[in-house]
Amino acid sequence: MNTRFAVATHILAYLAHAQPGQPVSSEVLASSAGTHPVVVRRLMSTLREAGLVQSQRGAGGGTVLARPAAEITLLDVFRAMQASEPDLFQVGSTNPNTHCDLGSVMQETLEGLFGPAIEAMRAALAAVTVQQVMQELGKRLPGGCTDASG
């Protein structure tokens, strides 16, 4: 999934860090995440479709969380990013030679091996909320997470 998941998580953490109800512009989010505002806008579109953020247009517009950070899990973010990209461990798109002994059983073998790993990853992501990400960030910020200046 390249960096989409990490940047989307960054966006949500920043929105959770901002003043409640205060919209944040894509330019501010892009500056914090170290990426281009167009990238942020595309990700926010995906996050909006997943019901994780809400956008407000016009002067003073921007994006806010659609629900409390404690109710958004990293699995929600992962699933939102998957809506436009396949699974990290996608094996359905491979096309092994079925006339080859190895190729004829590769798909089933990989699915059996990757399945438990994918489920463990999903369970781990489901156990972490954006609020917990903020708590971890707060441990690393001088003075904790008290302002939204970056």
UniProtKB/TrEMBL annotation:
InterPro entries in the record: Tscrpt_reg_Rrf2 (IPR000944), WH-like_DNA-bd_sf (IPR036388), WH_DNA-bd_sf (IPR036390)
Domain of life: Bacteria
Cited Pfam families: Rrf2 (PF02082)
UniProt-recorded name of the protein: Rrf2 family transcriptional regulator
